[in-house]
Amino acid sequence: MAEAHAAVAFSFTVTPDGVDVNLNHEALHAVWESGVISWKKRIGKLKNNFHNGVFPASPLSLLFFVTIVLAIKTAGWDASMGVINVLHLHVPVVNSYSYSVGQYLSTLLFALFLWLVTIMTIRYFLKLLLTYHGWMYEMHGTLSLRTKLWLGLIRIFGGRKPMLNSYQASLPKLPVPSLHDTMQRYLESVESLMEEERYNRMKKLAKEFEDGLGRKLQRYLILKSWWATNYVSDWWEQYVYLRGRAPIMINSNYYGIDALLVKPTDQQASRAANLISIMLKYRREVDREELNPIVLNKTVPLCSAQYERQFNTTRIPGIETDTLVHFKDSSHIAVLHKGRYFKVYIRHKRRLLEPIEIEAMLQRILDDEAEPVEGEAHLAALTAVERVPWAKARKDFFSKGKNKASLDAIEKAAFVVSLDTENIDYDPNDPTALDSYGHSMLHGSGCNRWFDKSFTLVVFPNGRVGFNAEHSWADAPISAHSWEVMIEMDRRIGYRDDGRCQGTMVYQPPNPIRLEWDFPKPCLDLIETCRIQAQLLCEDVDLHIMMHSAYGKGFIKTCKVSPDAYIQLALQLAYYRSAGKFCLTYESSMTRLFREGRTETVRSCTKDTCAFVKAMEAKADNQELIKLMKKAAGTHQNLYRDAMTGAGIDRHLFCLYVVSKYVGQDSPFLAEVLSEPWRLSTSQTPHQQTDKLDLNKYPDRICGGGGFGPVADDGYGVSYIIAGEDTIFFHISCKNSCPTTGAHKFGRLIEKSFADMKAIFNK
What we know:
Strand content: 5-15%
Low-confidence stretches: 1-10
Shape: globular
Radius of gyration: 29 Å
Number of helices: 25
Distance between the termini: 69 Å
Strand order of the largest sheet: 15-9-8-12-13-14-3-20
Largest sheet: 8 strands, mixed
Structural class: alpha+beta
Helix content: 40-55%
């Protein structure tokens, strides 16, 4: 409560006898504690920066260099080839001492210089090694001699015990693909989707663009790639996310759900307290960079830049563009319950509160029978609808007084917790139960999730949990990573027999602070309008969560096919059976092999995919179908690898389009390409990103994954997670207002596709 006390920590009055100064010692102590925490963080940051600055070498290696150089110098040899003597003669600070002391200091300076040069050389060499991606294309075959040598060098120069950001400076930049290659890849990706006349027209437009305006735009893009850390990521965040004026609820935010086969407790406050405590300790690990970076195949590191803004982050609405604001620290969380908002402190005397202490505070909120003030219960609807009305309302009604103070408490919180009042659960005998779960996580009522916050943790009365995350600060794998850690640590910490938190109360935590609001009539009218709009958006979502347990990656791997490619083929087969045609398909891939990389698109509907689907519908011979499947899967895997290694199509075209707008020259080719709808938008949620979750030992810990809303009005959004050996969860969304789509219908077609594809291996 330091910031509350600071306002009254010091006061004075002027009297005829002089100035009477009053100091509140308790408040000053709180201010002191806050300052100590702040300075400890700064010192820790400096320490981490030094460690990362010399990585992959160790700070102790400086001592090794100094010892060796001093030993050689003492033995009468000059390994510096005269540099030490030059330093002694020409560095003023050194030559002011006696000869022996000067020689000693000169030797130290030379050792330091040699150490720095060695570190820079090793880091540059490591960066060169990480630009090699041939290993990815050999993963499931015999490794070439070149790749074996590369692996050996990576293990030698890759460093030991890295911190979260240790590899950042060694990661290569995302390369700009050649214009010709991107044009060729684009034309190949749409050839099977367009009629011959339209394809020939696009081929002509692509040729004109490549020979004309494209060259100019490419030069600007190459210039940006030299100057910027990543030529895509800042524009992607700005133009795809922050400049979008449409509602972020459903259209941008995504969600995650619980591990469905287990439920550690049915106590709402207890489950919430445990998870809040785990998330705060996870935040501390991120701040201190104690979280291990993700390393593919225990060899190749991924970029960790996105972790920084997971906590203490909010999206601020603007008229033309939103702003993503990240606060260095936060000492509280915001809690929403029955339409009321509370500020809950999470520290006491330089330590994080224990779960049992957080539980006591949350229980007070649950026991509080006070009603929300007028407009408070639907306040979050402002964050759910179009951005411009919210931006204007924030300026008009939340720029001063208690409204500003309360809004600050939400926006500056570490994260938001919603203690819901209606139970949601998994019921194997009721398929609609999971659908309700998904609806609650994706949008809730439209008024009980703060959609601008980096994430909202949702806890139901029966102990089930989930989250809703804003998308601009990071991509889903970052949230999935923390969620995986949270679910597993929740199991390890556990609960008492009565379902309550472990531990003993040693400190009576402060009462939650009820946030106060004062809404004028125009603000109340706007909140009600937004509530109605949010409700309409929610009602238009058709969402189905399907747990496919007939078989999973265990069987798929026996077919010698990539599980992801197999699932993508099943989705294409399902869509073709639904629509009678193929469509432009988006599959999200990551580019975190590069510094500040985010995502790239895999255009997974290929000529080979179409050939396999048509052969399936024509009931071709099984051996022919298997041959076509493996060919299509191989093509898909190569496209995925290309996307991961910077040879994708869509981010390059997107950046060329942005440059064209900056130079004021429109391109008919780019305008048409970027207006093509993604009627099938897909994404795989990664599982087991850490070694904390052992599904072989605890198979019931499989996570249900998460999902997102449809991208096109007449299309589907499909997210899937390969959970263990025998289960795949699908999260299917579309719009009720579209007469040609249906989430349950598409789910049934996916199941039939899986059954039919398995049958070709069983006959």
